[in-house]
Specification:
Elements lengths: L1 H17 L3 H7 L4 H29 L2 H21 L3 H29 L4 H25 L7 H19 L24 H22 L2 H7 L6 H24 L5 H21 L3 H9 L1 H19 L5 H31 L1 H8 L1 H12 L1 H4 L6
């Protein structure tokens, strides 16, 4: 269990360098918000295509440790031209690869852990929340020591190289994955892998994740440029992650003890996302930002635990990696790509207030759809 904790912790340190700083890197290059949205969307495209391909390799070979090492190394190397190249084309292509590599690792870790932990929600919650704590502590440390420097892309690239080296060292000591399923009779075509219930829940999640692109991909410049937080923006990102840590543990316990269901937590998380965006809109202050960031506990913390448990109980174990990659690529990264692309244009043309107001409609639609389809989504009780 301790090795799972270290794996999640070290990987989320990498995320702490990439996720909040990509928008800052592009703004440092002088890109407009529309151009930032376009380049980020191209990166998101990589996070849609590559994980689906790589997860298939993982499920067939179960050479998971080797894949972790290769993906992390490629990500760190290609991050350098993404951060430093003056060419828009090279920057976009590099971000495509970087996003595809590091967002392939996330579902692989989820599938790997679910297999070895037998889908135990409480143990998964502990391991995954340890990753969140790595994210929190890394961002707090970045703000305290002023490294990486938010105005220096070379500093950010160096920070990623250090974080990647630590992650790769941890991977060397984690357990081997379970061997692949060899019974050909259990192998199905892609159309037969998942249930109607699964696909419908992915639609609900996808609607919500369109709007989650705003706090996840386009909020850093709002905090730096509009609220004037400078390098301290990382502290507010870490505040959201800290609340996520708490709810991942609570959500995992509640799910394992059957005090709630994935369906309930996903509905509540979608509604909370609408509230979060409206708080940004109507309370443009540090106090409003603090409250909105705390809602990350529900819009991602308990939400992600619920989604992974929904998948763990609805999908055959041998298809975990493909199912988790489908969740990340099609239900999460594709909607966030569309949200990033549209969001950058909205910021340039109409400003942040219209951005927050208009995008709050997506999680409202997700909530309504989930309530209307409650009978299908809750048709099969969890094991």
């Amino acid at each position: 269990m301790f090795r799972f904790i270290l794996l999640n912790f070290s990987f989320q340190v990498i995320i702490a360098v990439i996720a909040p700083y990509v928008q800052i890197i592009l703004r440092n290059k002088g890109y407009s918000h529309s151009m930032v949205g376009l380049v980020v969307a191209i990166g998101q495209l990589g996070s849609i295509i590559l994980p689906l391909l790589i997860s298939g390799v993982s499920d067939k070979t179960r050479r998971t440790k080797l894949l972790f090492l290769i993906l992390a190394l490629v990500c760190a190397v290609v991050f350098i031209p993404m951060a430093l190249s003056p060419s828009v084309a090279i920057t976009a292509i590099s971000l495509f690869v970087v996003s595809g590599m590091y967002l392939s690792i996330s579902p692989l870790i989820d599938g790997y852990q679910n297999r070895l932990l037998n889908g135990d929600a409480q143990k998964y919650g502990i391991a995954r929340s340890a990753g969140t704590m790595g994210y929190v502590l890394a961002l707090a440390l970045f703000s305290l020591i002023r490294f990486p420097k938010e105005t220096d892309n070379s500093s950010i690239a160096l920070c990623l190289a250090i974080a990647t080296a630590v992650f790769m060292a941890v991977v060397l000591f984690i357990p081997k994955d379970l061997p692949p399923e060899r019974d050909s009779k259990k192998r199905k075509s892609i159309n037969g892998l998942f249930s109607k219930r699964f696909y419908l829940m992915m639609v609900v999640i996808g609607l919500s994740r369109v709007a989650h692109a705003i706090p996840d991909r386009l909020l850093s410049s709002y905090m730096v440029e509009v609220l004037g937080l400078g390098g301290n923006f990382a502290l507010f990102v870490s505040l959201g992650a800290l609340s996520e840590f708490v709810m991942m543990n609570i959500g995992g316990i509640l799910l394992e003890k059957k005090k709630t269901t994935p369906y309930t937590l996903i509905v509540l998380g979608s509604f909370a996302l609408a509230v979060r965006l409206l708080v940004y809109r109507f309370f443009p202050s540090v106090l409003g930002l603090v409250f909105a960031q705390l809602l990350h506990s529900m819009t991602f913390g308990s939400y992600h635990i619920a989604a992974t448990q929904f998948i763990a109980h609805d999908v055959q174990k041998e298809h975990y990696s493909v199912a988790m990659s489908f969740y990340w690529a099609i239900a999460t990264n594709l909607p966030q790509m569309l949200g990033s692309l549209a969001g950058g244009v909205v910021i340039d043309r109409f400003g942040y207030n219209i951005l927050f107001s208009s995008f709050s409609l997506f999680p409202i639609l997700a909530t309504v759809l989930a309530l209307l389809c409650r009978g299908i989504l809750k048709a099969k009780p969890l094991d």
